[in-house]
């Protein structure tokens, strides 16, 4: 039972603690259950998106690591012919030149 509560404390109650501390849910400032329900729903949706974005960044990092490991393995075995062409790049550095600068309007 203690292990189960420990796991719950790390996952579920941490989410509500973050919402209370950083998203002003310690006290209600709205009238009505429906208004508070909508606010809580939006806050929890934002926290889920934050968790998802961290997870996606971790997955992209792991993907880059696997590509680097695979390419270095090919170099060690001598099977890779085009050593100067295929270099592993981070996804952000690959797409950085493709971003266009938006002109400022005054």
UniProtKB/TrEMBL annotation:
- Organism, by scientific name, is Streptococcus canis
Per the database record, which ranges form the Transposase DDE domain?
A: 2-52
Q: What is this protein called?
A: Transposase DDE domain-containing protein
Q: Which Pfam families match?
A: DDE_Tnp_1_6
Taxonomic lineage of this organism?
Answer: Bacteria, Bacillati, Bacillota, Bacilli, Lactobacillales
């Amino acid at each position: 039972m203690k292990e189960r509560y420990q796991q719950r404390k790390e996952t579920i109650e941490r989410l509500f603690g973050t919402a209370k501390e950083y998203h002003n849910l310690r006290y209600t400032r709205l009238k009505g259950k429906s208004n508070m329900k909508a606010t809580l729903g939006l806050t929890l949706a934002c926290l889920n998106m934050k968790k998802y974005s961290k997870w996606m960044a971790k997955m992209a990092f792991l993907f880059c690591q696997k590509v680097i490991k695979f390419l270095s393995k090919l170099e060690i075995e001598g099977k890779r012919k085009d050593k100067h062409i295929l270099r592993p790049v981070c996804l952000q550095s690959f797409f950085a030149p493709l971003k266009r600068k938006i002109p400022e309007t005054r």
